[in-house]
Structures
1.
Amino acid sequence: MTISELYIYPIKSLGGISLTEAIVEEKGFRYDRRFMLVEPDGTFMTQRANHQMALLDVDIQGDILRVWHRHRPDDVLDLALTIPEVEPGVSRDWLNVTIWDDKDVPALTVSDEADQWFSVVLGKPCRLVFMPETTHRPVDPAYARQQDAVSFADGYPYLLIGQASLDTLNQRLTDPVTMQRFRPNIVVSSSLPNDEDAWSRFCIGETSFYGVKPCARCVLTTIDPETGHTGREPLRTLSTYRQWKHKILFGQNVLVKLTGEPVPVRVGQQIEVLARHEPWLAPPVQL
């Protein structure tokens, strides 16, 4: 089994970036979901309620993060890829933000220019914030060790999906969907459909990863990332064979154990499964 695709999403719930190499860090791949859009009161914003966010694309050029609306590609916002807590001559505020049940997560405001640009593009007041290295947002202790932390991602640093899992889903759909619907970080080739549910420990190179639980999917997967339009699929079909305790599962939430400096993983690199647990769902019927 090998890595077939790698993705990061520098601004939570905006477009992703496909990489051939990504740096593994505790909170997630380097630059993954370190920025986030929030309401003026600090409540996080996502495509679930703001479908236009699906049409905001991002790219990294050197140390610059570029953002634009797909229908207005000439109106580009350039941002520094990292925001220092203290910068000479720059006044920057702290804002406590909320992501699901995590309240009062310390974040840095980015700039008035960024706030204005996003407010105009999305048609509602919002602010752009950044998570500095000093912010420690713990992973749910029911599934993690005390020191495990996560970025602005919904709950876990990494999401892994097997390509065969998507292929099996698409065989059941009238209109196939792309992997981008599910916003993974790591896509695996040559695994069995939904086999990743059972991976409790696996290695990529010398780095150990831990599968902690399958990912419960929400209505965000029903938003077409190309158009921003929403429908009933793929959740309706997934519910027929991937439902467990009233949750629809697809992909595996993953933690990492780093023993030294951050290391890269690459497309084409082999994955070795070292330990398994009981899968949360019985393997689907093969079509």
2.
Amino acid sequence: MPTDEITAAAAGTWTLGDRTVHRMGFGSMRITANPDRDRAVALLRRAVELGVNHIDTAAFYVSPGGTLRVGTGPVRYATELIRAALAPYPRDLVIVTKVGFGYDPQAGFTEAFTPAQLRAQVEENLRRLGLDQLDVVNLRLGRGPGPVPLVDRFGALAELRAAGLIRHLGLSNVRPEQLDEVAGIAPVVCVQNNYGVDAYREQDPFVRTCGERGIAYVPFFAVAGTGREKGASADQGEAVEAVARAHGVTPHQVRLAWTLHQGPHVLAIPGTGDVAHLTQNIAAASLRLTPEDLTRLG
């Protein structure tokens, strides 16, 4: 496919609250890995040129160290790279960030539970992105229940939403019953969980539930699967490889196309630090799988 035909718009759109986004977006975690700041800036600008208007980020996406546990040189925050590349922001650009987790170079990863801690993380995102209001904030939950009930933490963010610091709220790393817990506190516009063609398929019913409720389902690591921060395995699986050969595309593109085929409410946010890989990812927005392909992929 010629480069001038590649656009994130080919995936269609979804509305997050009152903000319409192309279903093919961009995840910013990996842009901090390379110490060349200009490379990340160029990549982000190219993503927007290719039609991306939904960028996922977090203030704890930082190198050296941070989520990827890689890198040398000066500290690089994904949020600050986004600001350097794209501010003043295009009017249609939606930036989705996360709180609940934080990263301190000395203490490592921390988790916010109190209203003061959550507000501090919201304010950090506002400062690093250079915004007065965050479009969407996902409350990222840890693996355990934590010392503070979910309803109290989500309620604290709902208060910040009422105060105008946040436009819309979402949840990340959440179970179906937890979505029900917060239903009466404030609207949830998106759920962001680890999910892919061969990873965490027990969430299939949850994906459908979100669609029935008009909530976006946004898989992270849709390409990497269980490899998570380490990236995708060289072994893509027989079914994925076979479908890729049939269409003359890469296995990564098949994984992204499968993600988008799970429902009109499912959004893709693949991340990369490489412009060529970015272009391949965006090209997957126009890949249409057949019913036979979907059956083969499971």
